[in-house]
């Protein structure tokens, strides 16, 4: 029998903050993915919550620059680097201005797709 991965509880406050940030946006759907909750915007993965961090799809153009900011690291899934996707930990989004900045970046890239 295969072992099931233990899922990390989702930070409900972070989840609610993202829901609020996206509430006036059209075509937003929540899906369970990557052991957390992902927000699909216009049928494209945009922002996810897993545990106490969020994943932001920011695209490859500014990816390296964004990784230099505090509380960030590249997304690795299944041992593979997912360039253009960044995990942002609490220290990177705890200030309201930082949180809004990450939401804006993810939505701006989503709008380009």
Question: Which stretches are low in confidence, meaning pLDDT under 50 for 5 or more residues running?
Answer: 1-5
Largest sheet at a glance? 6 strands, antiparallel
Average of per-residue pLDDT values = 91
User: With helices defined by DSSP (H or I, 4 residues minimum), what is the helix count?
Assistant: 4
Name the beta content range. Answer: 25-35%
How many distinct domains?
A: 1
- What is the strand tally? 6
Question: Which structural class fits the helix and strand makeup?
Answer: alpha+beta
Helix content: 25-40%
Q: Can you tell me the CATH topology?
A: Aspartate Aminotransferase, domain 1
Can you describe what's shown?
The chain has helices at 12-22, 63-67, 90-93, 96-112, and strands at residues 28-33, 36-41, 44-50, 53-57, 72-77, 80-88. The protein is 33% helix and 35% strand. The N and C termini lie far apart (41 Å). Strands 1-2-3-4-6-5 form a six-stranded antiparallel β-sheet. Strand 5 (72-77) and strand 6 form a beta hairpin. It has a single domain (12-112), classed as Alpha-Beta Complex (Aspartate Aminotransferase, domain 1). It is of the alpha+beta class and 113 residues long.
Report a brief summary of the structure.
By secondary structure, the protein is α+β, with helices and mostly antiparallel strands. The chain is 33% helix and 35% strand.
Protein traits:
single chain; 113 residues; alpha+beta; disordered N terminus
């Amino acid at each position: 029998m295969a072992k099931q991965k233990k899922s990390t509880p989702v930070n409900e406050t972070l989840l609610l903050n993202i829901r609020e940030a996206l509430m006036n946006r059209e075509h937003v759907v929540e899906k369970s993915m990557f052991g957390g909750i992902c927000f699909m915007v216009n049928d494209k993965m945009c922002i996810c919550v897993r545990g106490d961090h969020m994943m932001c799809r920011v695209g490859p153009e500014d990816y390296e620059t964004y990784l230099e900011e505090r509380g960030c690291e590249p997304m690795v899934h299944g041992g593979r680097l997912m360039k253009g996707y960044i995990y942002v930990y609490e220290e990177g989004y705890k200030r309201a201005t930082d949180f809004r900045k990450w939401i804006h970046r993810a939505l701006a890239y989503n709008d380009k797709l």
